[in-house]
Every structure is written in C-alpha cells, then in structure tokens.
Design goal:
By secondary structure, this protein is of the alpha+beta class. The protein has a single domain, classed as Ribosome hibernation promotion factor-like (Double Stranded RNA Binding Domain), CATH 3.30.160. Helix content is about 40%, strand content about 30%. It contains 3 helices and 4 strands; from the N terminus they run βααβββα. A 4-stranded mixed β-sheet has the order 1-2-3-4, with helices on one face. Strand 2 and strand 3 form a beta hairpin. Helix 1 runs parallel beside helix 3. The chain is elongated and about 45 Å long. The two termini are about 25 Å apart. The mean pLDDT is about 95.
Length: about 100
C-alpha cells in the first residue's frame, strides 16, 4: 500500500506524521488489496473539534473516504481509521466473500 501524508494550513510535527502513518498501516490487517491511502490533516472551524483528519483509501473499483473531527489530530486519525476499518470490512464482505 502506498501512503501519502498532507498537513494543510499548519506544520505537522514528525511525531504526528509518524503516528498517522503507523495508524493507517493497521488497515492492511483487515484488507490486503489496498492500493493507496491518502492522509490529509487540516484545522476545522468548530471550537469543540478543531482537528480534522481525512482518509482516502483506494481499493479495487472503489474509493473509501472518511472524514473525522476531534479535539486532537491523534484522536481524529484514530476515529478515521476505525471508521475506515468498518467500511473496508463491509466492502470486503460485499465484493469478496459472496462467492
């Protein structure tokens, strides 16, 4: 799986980048045919949840997009990965296990 990391409108620390890349590596445990995973972190307008994490996971014939807001970027990434895992399981069940 190829992974890209983007921090929009702020400078991400190397720890945050490392955390994000390690978090999305978990996705391969649930589905091994992932082609590409784009991680985009950006500040949001909401005072309660100012950190937004977007994940775009490219799998054969489909793009799974997840966007999560949280008080911290690490939390947003964690929530987005959990959401993506749920969607990957659903995709895998629909497309690969019905034979």
């Amino acid at each position: 799986m190829k992974t890209t990391f983007t921090a929009r409108h702020f400078q991400a620390s190397s720890d945050l980048k490392e955390y994000s890349l390690n978090a999305v590596e978990k996705l391969e445990q649930f589905f091994d045919k992932i082609i590409l995973c784009d991680i985009v972190l950006r500040p949001g307008q909401d005072d309660e949840n100012p950190a937004i994490a977007d994940l775009n996971v490219k799998v054969p014939r489909t793009l799974i997009s997840v966007s999560e807001a949280a008080p911290a970027y690490e939390q947003a990434i964690g929530n987005a990965v959990d959401n993506a895992i749920r969607q990957l399981r659903k995709y895998k069940t629909k497309h690969y296990e019905h034979n």
